[in-house]
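Pasting as-is:
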Amino acid sequence: MEKLFKLKEHGTDVKTEVIAGATTFLSMVYILAVNPGMLAAAGMDSAGVFTATAVSAAIASLFMAFFANYPVALASGMGLNAYFAFTVCGDLAAKGVTDPWKIALAAVLAEGIVFVLLSLCNFREKLVNDVPANLKYAITAGIGLFITLIGLKGAGIVIGDASTLVNLGSFSSPQVVLALVGLIIVAVLYHFNIKGYILIGILVTWGLGMIAEATGWYVVDPEAGVYSLFPSFSGASFIPAKPALFEFDFAWIADNIIQFIVIVFSFLYVDLFDTVGTLIGVASKGNLLDEDGNLPRAKGALMADACGTIVGACIGTSTVTSYVESSAGVANGGRTGLTAVTAAVLFIVALFFSPIFLAIPSFATAPALVWVGLLMIGAVRNMHFDGDIADVVGGFLALIMMPFTYSIANGIMFGILAWVILKVLTGKVKDIPVVMWIAAILFGLRVATLIMQQTA
């Protein structure tokens, strides 16, 4: 282990890495429940998607461990799967296309191949390393707010409201109460420096939920999306279902090449900048950036992400990407690829014990996400809110637009565009790295496509 992952050099040990990997896994295991249902809406077999989601997550996380030695786990990305199912497949189905998911999978495959090429020519690595310092810290803090919102929403603490956009959830809800109790538990464990405090918090919150169900406070109502917290093995098969292997429709692509390119670009855009933002945020939280604020071994990390996407497409799932929930493991001491290996092993285990893992509710992982958000927002202390106006405004927009638009990529888009535009308008064109020009042009094209879509 020492030779493979250089544990001593990173100030960690096997036990810490394994606990961190388990914490990361439990923070992102919800994808095994969400993704099959999401892609089933596109016409795919949910059991096969479950297998593909778990296997691709394991393989991609192993890529990250051995290509870059980073404590980052990967899986089918949230947001990207919604785009896959409801935008791409929904539009194609409305036009009478049979099995539109085969076209969407081909687009994911093409996206992965393009990412490999971009990684080989160092574009993605330079993008990670040439982002200005204020933007990097803003991205870290913004991701903290974003995953806090994910956790609060998952527990029902924050709910949608037609009048005020968001509102406070009901305190008569056991999910809300248990999530808040879980957060207090995590805070107390942290205060007493208990190893594995985030993982313990998740498991204790889940346990309290089962007690609430047994006493009748937590009422199971599948029609309302409230499921039993006790693992159910009745009629469950422990043999993984066959995924959709190499199910691509290239015939349609040949006749609709322009439309296909637009689909690929959309996948490319979201995955590219979500990945960059996630890697910067997680690496910053784990003190993995070098003295210049750059990400060492960025090429390996980005290549792992790209190869994971290709594998995912070949076995039948939407875009595989680096998970911001890896921050939970990093906050718990994860510093090397052994954390990612642990998460990968648990994804394989989940194939055979899916009833157990799928029983962990979102309100039990909410305290972990909120706590990590608290830790990551601390990066705002390193931001400068005076001096160069491009750094100030660019960083501020990157920080606020992630939670307010519910997208890491949108936050980066606003931050980079504002930074480049203000550099130009203040006569500092020479200070703009080439890679930032390229990123700004890509985002400009993205804005143009959004305008065309909204006015069509």
